[in-house]
Design brief:
single chain, mainly beta, Immunoglobulin-like, 3 domains, ten-stranded mixed sheet, five-stranded mixed sheet, 31 strands, 43% strand, elongated
Length: 365
């Protein structure tokens, strides 16, 4: 500007106009997608969104407002200033299977491109239907019939949580029949569960199926029920536990002094060994489904015999295992003095004339 006045010196005032581009909100990513299956133990992991002004040295105040039917979409924090990162999370509780669309309205009064809309998609899928592939004796791992009190292993898919969960014992000393929303039913009677995972369940056949010809077993997971598997019911189907938990080889056996029997710790002839198994069936004092027994011992109704190296062994005890769930079997037997074989020697338990699996051994010196 030039300023003149009569009798005065001309004055010049310089004026500068600086024109800059308006700040823009920059949001990344542009969209968000979440996936959830109703059998999942927790909600999908939250996701982060970065927000900047797009101009160095420029700070913009912003707000992020979620919109979703049922309020499943959440933002933390809901407002701030650039540069910043906010977290987007979803709460799928109560949502049925389907695709849900929500949005975030991101606004700033100082930005030329405000507001912006970010689309958020949540896909909810139903839990997969549990599938049963095999049912085996929990000790022998051989395909089995259903025996009252028998510890069984159920193999399949989508039967429980990905990470296995152990059963618990309540204040009345009963093993739980529901583990992480998993149940096993025999003709509608819930079975005690020792372990439950997506691919394997260890459970105890309820004593209530005694005297039936057959039983229909189903697995429930997250309110999804498998197809029923019909199993023949039998009085006994004995199996012995092994060290490798494969159903064969070195048995899970204790020596007379309480040490673990093994190739490097064999037992002498004439001494007593302790074997462990399941599938002995009903007991003289009727079994109670899921009861973890104390010192109130119960004995199989059927006669228990033992052979070691093909020779009859004296049975000193055959009955319940204190501290274990009903259906567990402990057998104390004396190694025959006349036995000449050493090393791994075949051992067999018969209950009511039905033998345990072949291939189980005891180490003899």
């Amino acid at each position: 500007m030039t300023i003149t006045a009569q009798g005065a010196t001309v004055a010049t005032i310089p004026v500068t106009l600086t024109v800059t581009a308006a700040a823009n909100l920059q949001v990344a990513p542009a969209t968000l997608t979440f996936n959830y299956q109703t059998s999942d133990a927790s909600a999908p992991a939250s996701q982060s969104v970065q927000i900047t002004s797009g101009s160095a040295g420029t700070t913009l105040n912003w707000s992020a407002t979620p919109t979703s039917t049922g309020s499943w979409l959440q933002v933390t924090p809901p407002r701030g200033s650039t540069p910043a990162t906010f977290t987007v999370s979803v709460n799928p509780t109560g949502l049925s299977a389907g695709t849900y669309n929500g949005s975030l309205l991101i606004a700033s009064g100082g930005a030329s491109n405000s507001p912006q809309t970010m689309n958020v998609t949540l896909t909810v899928t139903a839990a997969a239907l549990p599938q049963i592939s095999t049912v085996v004796n929990g000790a022998s791992l051989a395909p089995t019939v259903a025996v009252p009190g028998e510890i069984i292993t159920i193999n399949g898919t989508a039967m429980g949580p990905a990470a296995g969960v152990s059963g618990t014992v309540d204040s009345q000393n009963f093993l739980s029949t529901t583990v992480s929303d998993v149940r096993v039913l025999f003709d509608g009677v819930a079975a005690p569960i020792l372990w439950a995972s997506a691919t394997q369940i260890n459970a105890v056949v309820p004593y209530e199926i005694a005297n039936r010809v057959s039983t229909r077993m189903t697995v429930q997971n997250q309110n999804q029920t498998s197809q029923a598997l019909e199993l023949k019911v039998s009085d006994v189907a004995p199996g012995l536990f092994t060290v490798a938990m494969t159903g064969s080889g070195q048995g899970a056996i204790l020596n007379q002094n309480g040490s673990v029997n093994s190739a490097t710790n064999p037992e002498r002839r004439g001494n007593v060994i302790v074997l462990y198994g399941t599938g002995q069936g009903q007991t003289t004092q009727p079994g109670m489904t899921g009861l973890v027994l104390g010192n109130s011992l119960r004995y199989p109704v059927a006669t228990v015999t033992v052979t070691i190296g093909g020779q009859p062994a004296e049975v000193l005890y055959a009955g319940s295992l204190p501290g274990a769930v009903s259906g567990s079997l402990q057998v104390n037997a004396r190694i025959p003095q006349t036995l000449t074989a050493t090393g791994p020697v075949a051992v067999e338990v018969r209950v009511g004339g039905t033998p345990s699996q072949a291939g189980v051994t005891v180490a003899i010196q």
